[in-house]
Design goal:
Structural class: alpha/beta
Pfam families: PGA_cap
Protein name: Capsular polysaccharide biosynthesis protein
Helix content: 25-40%
Keywords: Signal
InterPro entries: Capsule_synth_CapA, CW_Biosynth-Accessory, Metallo-depent_PP-like
Shape: globular
Oligomer: single chain
Organism: Streptomyces xanthochromogenes
Low-confidence stretches: 1-17, 19-62
Length: 380
Amino acid sequence: MPAPARLRAHSRHTVTAKASVLALGVLLASTACSGSPSAAPAAVRSAPASPEAAVAVTAQPTPDLPPGTITLAFGGDVHFTERTAPRLNATPADPALGPMSKTVAAADFAMVNLETAITTRGAAEPKLYHFRTPPSALTALQASGVDAVSMANNHAVDYGPAGLADTLDAVHHAPIPVLGIGANEAEAYKPYVKNIRGVRLAVVAASQVMDLTNDKFRAGPRKPGIASALDQAKLIAAVKRAKAEADVVVVYLHWGTEGQSCPGPEQKSIAAKLSAAGATAVVGTHAHVMLGSGMLGRSYVNYGLGNLLWYGTSPYPRSNDSGIATLTIAHGKVVKQAFAPAVVDGRGVPMPQSGAAAKSVTDRLASLRGCAALSPGPRS
């Protein structure tokens, strides 16, 4: 069968709008994204003005999932620069996230962290690392089965106010929802709500990383920027608003300390508060290594998803270990956890693992649960 159909072969959907969007996204990515990263930002204006025009709001019931049950998949940090820039040239046979796209696409809803400014302009901020990408990155991720991205991170405004203006323009014309950044704090903290086969899902994104971006480009009442988890009152209020209108609430955070595979007290503290506020799942990235995952009371917590599509090898042990975490949620409760192990290869692409290589990654992940102070919870 053609590659887009193979990508959906194990999907929990039968004939859904999401599958149609995936095929369209691959086609768009293979044509519109074939240029260099200097493609004009105006290209996004050909995309639908509303994310809902490109992303299925309500999928069809499927016989293999009971009513009130959905699956969610989460991956870590991605961007398109240096060795990963060619991944913008997605094809049906080789989408941006490579073979891991099958796992991403199989879930009802999948999300990653897009750790880059979306711009070709602007002056670099006074920091060590700078990442940027053209708007076609969002189409390339959509073509890999990604349904939404977070941009509440420490690289979203690497190219200053001009870069932020371009990013917001891309966000407002994006083919998929972009969370955690906005023209003001109301937009940045606003929960994204989606109905999936009768289950209302809400997602909130924010950054807890104390850095130049969180200090200089934190969204305010009339100020564009990212949603900050350092302002806990605003984040918790956003989660409570989401809980009031949704059955399932996910909080996607940028948090932790680079290279540290055990969560710090600031992570554990905010995870507990978000759980108490009604979060079904709290997941996150930033450390460039995997951290422990499991249950904190009734909430699933993943303290670190690691690198997923990454420009280079981070200078930390096991930084190439990666994977996709998938949750099955029934009637608002996590009933199953699964993890598809991967290793980031020399192209920066996450490659599925099997046998001893897979066991090495999953054993490492399991060993980190102790310092995360999480319980194993239900397994697949």
